[in-house]
Amino acid sequence: MSVPPPIHTEDVISAEPHPRPDGPPSYLSPSSASTFEQCQRRWKFRYVDRLPDPPGEKALIGTFVHRVLEELFARAEPDRSIETARHIARQVWPEIENDQAYKALNVEAEHGRRVRWDGWRLVEAYFAMERPDEIDVVEREQRIETQLGDVPFVGVVDRVERRDGSLVVTDYKTGRAPNSRYEADRLHQVQLYAAALDSMGARPDTARLLYLGARSIEADVTSETIDAAVGSISATWSAVNAALDVGEFDPCTGPLCAWCPYDDRCPEGTVEIERRYGPR
Ligand code: SF4
User: Fold this and answer.
1) Cα separation of 204 and 226, whole Å?
2) Among 4, 22, 35, 59, fewest CB within 10 Å belongs to which?
3) DSSP state of 45
4) Nearest Cα residue to atom 5 of ligand 1
5) Which of these, 258, 264, 200, lies nearest to 226 by C-alpha position?
6) Are 195 and 143 in contact (CB under 8 A)?
7) Pocket probe mutation, ligand 1, options 2, 40, 253, 271, max atoms within 8 Å of Cβ
8) In contact, 260 and 269? CB cutoff 8 Å
9) Residue 45 CA, closest ligand 1 atom number
């Protein structure tokens, strides 16, 4: 099989815009916009029909790592040591184990220890990338609700920090770092966050993705990047509303169908998976 889709940790923490109780979502988040852009039908299953899309093991590992880093950056600078992180990890892990999504994975105890270990190794890898006691944190896990152009936008920003007098918005990633050709594409989400912060009067200078255990990539935030981010999500919002108006949500088949939780409801997706990987 090909490489699995990137994990939007936002999907499994508090950021996800829940649909209105009486209808389709009244706003977009980076992950819901990304789902719509990837496949309208999948978006409809999730955000209109509200069918479950439980996070898998890797997404739960991402949640664990985000929680540990969130708590680490709640401490004063001198206390942001790896020993403190280990202590936090011990406190946070039961939250993950008690999560319904984790329980649904039904993992054996030994496998569970491996999942926890995989998460912890990412935290260790983080410490090899930067010194948390030197980060001048302005915000962490900041929930944002704002208007981007005509789009009601909701998201959670992992971290905003001050660096040499400028403002940096950072998003942690637990997946694989992209090939250099795809860096701009991957930065799109954090540029959206930059645009959202700008709309609230706090324009960052840099948008950065921190691939734990690998490297970080970053780009300047400018009027052009903000206009591009707002233009892009506005186009998606228009397409969402057009699809809702006519009730048509086109399938977009491809390798991601193999990771779609709704493939058994989607004839085109089933055909695509069998074409790629053989009869099931
Ligand atoms: S199976 Fe493929 S085409 Fe069907 S909803 Fe899922 S991602 Fe879209």
Assistant:
1) 10
2) 22
3) I
4) 42
5) 200
6) no
7) 253
8) yes
9) 5
Three-class SS state of 17 = coil
Distance (angstroms) between ligand 1 centre and the Cα of 164 equals 45
Q: How many CB atoms lie under 10 A from the CB of residue 247?
A: 8
Model confidence pLDDT, tens digit, residues 13-37: 334 444 445 567 889 999 999 999 9
For 183-206, letters b (16+ CB in 10 Å) and e give: eeebbbbbbbbbbbbbbeeebbbb
Burial class (CB in 10 A: 0-12, 13-18, 19+), 208: buried
| Residues 76-104 pLDDT 10s | 999 999 999 999 999 999 999 988 888 88
pTM, two decimal places? 0.87
Mind listing the pLDDT tens digit for each residue in 92-135? Answer: 999 999 888 888 888 888 888 999 999 999 999 999 999 999 99
- Where do runs of H (alpha helix) occur along 50-179? 57-72, 82-97, 100-105, 109-127
257 Cβ below 6 A of ligand 1 = yes
Residue position matching structure tokens 């935290």: 123
Ranges of H-type helices in the chain: 30-38, 40-43, 57-72, 82-97, 100-105, 109-127, 183-186, 188-199, 223-246, 267-277
